[in-house]
């Protein structure tokens, strides 16, 4: 499966920016974004972000359906954050960053905080990570 990236916009050696990750999140269809997150983070992690079980994620993958506004927003927010980390480093680091405790999130994982609907806090923590602060 091809990886969704904004390389054409950013250029091959560009530093990740807020604009690149934002363009990634709005320039792709929800189905492609879901598949990328599942391939990168795993079904169980994606299910945890949405507060759903793995069977629901399987159902979304098998028969593309239009997500409701809240779920689509969470999907795009999660992908924007994933893109920011992945562009700055690589897919393995992005996955580890999502799964691990984060001192900028009160030692909660980004997945837990996203599941609580606090995407702005997670994107701020991602920017701290990317900027090396």
TrEMBL record:
Entry protein name: Antitoxin Xre/MbcA/ParS-like toxin-binding domain-containing protein
Superkingdom in the source lineage: Bacteria
Region (Disordered): 1-24
Compositionally biased intervals (Low complexity): 1-19
Organism: Microbacterium trichothecenolyticum
